[in-house]
Predict the structure.
Amino acid sequence: MHYATAERREHLKHGLTHDPFKALIAPRPIGWISTTSADGLVNLAPYSFFNAVSDIPPMVMFSSTGRKDSLRNIEATGEFTCSIASLALVDAMNLSSATVAHDVNEYGLTGLTMAPSLLVTPPRVAESPAALECRVWQTVTLPGNEGDRAQVVVFGHVVAIYIDEAVVKDGLVDTAAMRPLARMGYMDYAVVTPETAFTLNRPQVDEGRRTASVKPGPWDGVYR
Ligand SMILES: Cc1cc2nc3c(=O)[nH]c(=O)nc-3n(C[C@H](O)[C@H](O)[C@H](O)COP(=O)(O)O)c2cc1C
């Protein structure tokens, strides 16, 4: 099949049961976003329209499909944290996506613990192996839907980072040891594990820059 996306929803031109878009952009990391409202109510929810967009300066984005509590709190306070959603926390992560009332704290709902942040007001998930503390740089409303159905992207500067020492090995973060969850399409998930993670050196070009080769084996130690 090969179809123009403008026709996708109206006529289901792809002929599939559901829109395949998110099943193709996979796996997507999950940003487990915690915010506080102007009057101090704490919120926690997962977002898979989430990613790092820069490392110098460190910045992340997430995107809200409609005007949800996380977005409203961020517009009011300009801050959020993002905890790593690990396999050990999968049920709590899923439960925290429930559309409960604004004044229900999802930490209480899920049995998770709030840990204080270093520089921002929203807490992080204490059980999570790592978390980012963020200050909003800009929110961008994407074209298309408007009002309550708007798709709004939040960009944040990462101003502090928490890492559990247990996932640091030989001066490096052992990402696979955290077993971070990722979202695929539909209700499907994936997980990074030591068994599925692998190392690949970057290609080295020859002097004339006409050919390139990759050193096999473990990391050559050069961080390109
Ligand atoms: C794994 C996962 C990923 C999700 N990703 C998004 C997302 O990227 N954008 C979004 O608007 N909602 C997403 N949701 C749904 C929100 O988590 C859900 O609407 C939640 O109630 C929003 O909470 P809030 O109103 O407290 O912000 C996701 C849910 C799950 C379980």
Observations:
- The chain has six helices and 16 strands.
- Residues 30, 43, 45-49, 63-65, 68-70, 94, 97, 99, 183 surround flavin mononucleotide (CB under 6 Å).
- The longest helix spans residues 69-77.
- The mean pLDDT is 95.
